[in-house]
Amino acid sequence: MKPPTRVNHPPEVLVPEDNRPLVAPIYQSVKFTMDSVAEAEKHNRGERQGFAYSRVSNPTLQQLELTLAELQQRPACLLTASGVAAINLALLALCKQGDHVIVFAEMYQPTRYMVRRLLGRYGVKHTMLSIEDTDGIESTLSSTPTRLLVFESPSNPLLKIADIVRITAAARSHGALTLLDNTFAGFHNHGTLDIDLFVHSLTKYASGHGDVMGGAVIGSHELISSMRRDFVIMGATLDPHAAFLIQRGMKTYFIRYEKQSQTAMAVAGMLAQHAAVERVHYPGLSSHRGHDLVLRQMQDFGTIVTFDLVKGADPARFCDSLKLFAISASLGSTESLVQPGQLMRPGDLSEQERQWTGVTDRTLRLSIGLEDQEDLIADLQQALQRAQTVGA
Ligand SMILES: *Cc1c(COP(=O)(O)O)cnc(C)c1O
Fold first, then answer.
1. In angstroms, what is the span from residue 90 Cα to ligand 1's centroid?
2. Which architecture characterizes domain 253-388 according to CATH?
3. Residue ranges covered by each domain of the chain
4. pTM above the 0.85 mark?
5. How far is the CA of 113 from the centre of ligand 1 (A)?
6. pLDDT digit string (tens) for 31-59?
7. Ligand 1: does its nearest atom lie under 6 Å from the Cβ of 183?
8. Where would I find the H helices in the chain?
9. Best mutation site among 159, 200, 204, 339 for ligand 1, i.e. most ligand atoms within 8 A of its Cβ?
10. How far is the CA of 161 from the centre of ligand 1 (A)?
C-alpha cells in the first residue's frame, strides 16, 4: 500500500469485546459500512441492526436519545441541531394545510414566529391566547377542531405556570395533540403528566456550559416514528461531537439544576425584600400566582428569577453595574446571566398580547449559575443600590 492509499485506509485498531471504553467514543463518521452488499440490503430492509448514514442515525446520537427519553419518561426521542429546529420540525411534521394550532403570547418568540408567519404561509391557522386563560383554552378547543396545542411552563420570562392537568385533559377530550416546550422546567419535570410530545433546547440545561447547541423531541414510539422520516429529510441533524458534549453535560445535569434552583430561591427571597424591587416573578414564592399549581406540578421552581424594578430605578444601570452576571440572552449556563426588558421587548405582539407577556422596560430576567450564593446576592445588592441612585 502506497502512502496516499495508506492515509485513506489507515491501520485498524480493534478493541476486544471484553475491553470497552468507560465513556462511549464519539462516532465522528458520516458513513458506516458493512462487509457485503447482501448485509447492506438486509439493513435497508430493516432486517438487521446497524447504521448507514449519520443524518439518519448514529451511535453517539442514539445514546443521547435513549438517555433523554428515559429522563423525560417517554420511550422515544429525535435530536436536532438546535432547540428551534426541534420545535419547527415537529410543527412541520405534525401539521398540514387547514389544521388549527393553539399558541400563547407568553412563548419563546421564534416559536410564535414559526406558527404565525411560517405555518400561516402554508395555510395552518392558529389562535393565540394567554397561557393563564385556561377557560379560553377549553372554549377554543370545544369550538374549533384543533390539531395541536403548543405551550411552555414556566413561561419565558415571567414564569407563569400553565394548568397542565386541565389543559391536557381538555386537549385529550377534543382530540388535539399537546406539545410542551419543557426547556425551562427540565427533563425531570412534567413526565408523569398526559403530554404527547416534549421539546427541549439542549443548548440550555442539557449541555449546561453554554458551548454547544442542540434540540430534542420526546414522545411515544408511535408519534416519534411517524415524525422520524420527515426529520431525517429536513436534515437539521445534530452533529456527533455536539451530541457527545451534551451527553457529557447531562452527567452533571441534576446537581447543576438542583444547586441553581436553590440559589434562585435565595435570590428571589432577597429581591422580594429589597426596596428597589417592585415585584418578583418566581414560582417558588408564595406571592406568585402560579405557586399552588407549581407545587402540584413540579419538583422544584427552576433557576430563572424575573423581577421588576421600582419606578425611577434604572434597569440598564443595574445590568451595567453587575460584575458576576453577564448581559446575555439564553439561560442554563454555569455562569449567571442577566437580560433586561428592553432586550426582550416582544416586537411582534398586539397591545393586548404584550400585556399578557407582562414584560416591561423595568423587567429583568436572571439566569442563575453555579457561582457562590453569597457572592451573587452581594453583587445584586450593590447593583440594585446603583440602579436607584440615578441622577443622584
Ligand atoms: C432557547 C430556547 C429555545 C430555542 O433553543 P435554541 O437551542 O436556541 O435553538 C426554545 N424554547 C425555549 C423555551 C428556549 O429557552
1. 14
2. Alpha-Beta Complex (3.90)
3. 37-250, 253-388
4. yes
5. 13
6. 999 999 999 999 999 999 999 999 999 99
7. yes
8. 3-6, 37-44, 59-71, 83-94, 109-113, 120-121, 134-143, 164-173, 221-234, 240-250, 253-273, 291-297, 315-321, 351-357, 373-388
9. 204
10. 18
